[in-house]
Amino acid sequence: MKSRIFSVLAALFALFFAVNGAWAGKIVIKGSTTVLPIAQKTAEAYMKQNPDVKITISGGGSGNGIKALIDGSTDIADSSRFIKDKEVKRAIQNGQYPVPFAVAYDCIVPVVHPSNTMTNITMAQLRDIYMGKIKNWRDIGGPDRIIVVISRDTSSGTYEVWAKKVLKKKRVFPGALLQASNGAVAQAVGNNKNAIGYIGLGYMNSNVKALMVNNVEGSKETTLDGTFPISRPLFMFTAGWPKGETLNFINFVLDPQKGQKLVGSAGYVPLY
Fold first, then answer.
1. At a CB cut-off of 8 Å and minimum separation 6, what does 112 contact?
2. Which residues pair with 106 in a beta bridge?
């Protein structure tokens, strides 16, 4: 009799914890490495305020984040570019209806090794470097060094914005070294005195040197006023209008006194 009562109680406890586990909120976020620092900071603060919520975050690029949204394996897709028409079509065919939320602004800054004497570069010079037409820094007023071109891979939203704004939709030349994240680009440039790369504003650090573009410094101010020529909004996409914990988190990110302050502390440009 006692063993039967014990078994019933054990089953009730198991059911109680299972139900509590089901009630506990869980959010999955995948996608852009540019948006990653924003997602990490806001998620950490949100979970601190809501200890029963678990948020898991991974990078992999904007394209991979949107792909995960389409196949239903993420609640939120971080993206440093807007969703493409063909992605919207695939999502709808899969029963998903992507909803965009702009969460911050950013600019893509060309960076070189700190030892490089260059301080400014034009859009035309950037285009020619990334198309393989300019091969030596000496040709544009820099040191006599062969340029090592570092770019993002094609699944990256940052690459797609760069290709659109700088390369005018041309592809980067085959000799470029491709990296999977902003952090990897910054590390590669910081370790090579001949290199040039490009990273989001939030990834700037003392190991790389930012170049002005057309004599305009990439900053929060020039991003907001539109004078820096390689600027863009950053997005979080949901499959349909968000509900429950996902909606609460999106609202937290967009709140001027909460998430948007964290956007600024992550090195990006708040919406307000």
1. 118, 189, 195, 196, 197, 208, 209, 211
2. 232
Question: 32 CB contacts (<8 Å, ≥6 apart)?
Answer: 59, 61, 62, 65, 78, 79, 80, 156, 157, 158, 234
Q: Where in the chain is the domain with CATH 3.40.190.10?
A: 2-105+234-265, 106-231
Evaluate if residue 141 carries a pLDDT over 60. yes
Look at the domain 2-105+234-265 and name its fold: D-Maltodextrin-Binding Protein; domain 2 (3.40.190)
Angle at 181 between CA 71 and CA 154, to 5 degrees: 60
Q: What is the CATH number of domain 106-231?
A: 3.40.190.10
Query: What span, in angstroms and rounded, lies between the C-alpha atoms of 46 and 55?
Result: 9
For 5-42, what is each residue's pLDDT tens digit? Answer: 334 333 333 333 333 444 458 999 999 999 999 999 99
Q: Helices then strands (H, E): number in the chain?
A: 10, 11
CA dist., res. 28 & res. 207, Å (int): 32
Q: Judge whether 57 and 84 are in contact, CB under 8 Å.
A: no
In this predicted structure, the answer to whether residue 171 has a pLDDT above a threshold of 80 is yes
**One-letter amino acid of 184:** A
* Distance of alpha carbon 156 from alpha carbon 64, whole angstroms: 8
Q: Give the chain's end-to-end CA distance (angstroms, integer).
A: 66
CA angle 231, 146, 184 (to 5 degrees): 45
DSSP per-residue letters across 115-165: T----EE-HHHHHHHHTTS--BGGGGTS-S-B-EEEEE-TT-HHHHHHHHH
* H helix runs in 30-145, sequence order: 36-49, 62-71, 85-93, 123-130
Q: Which pTM value belongs to this model?
A: 0.82
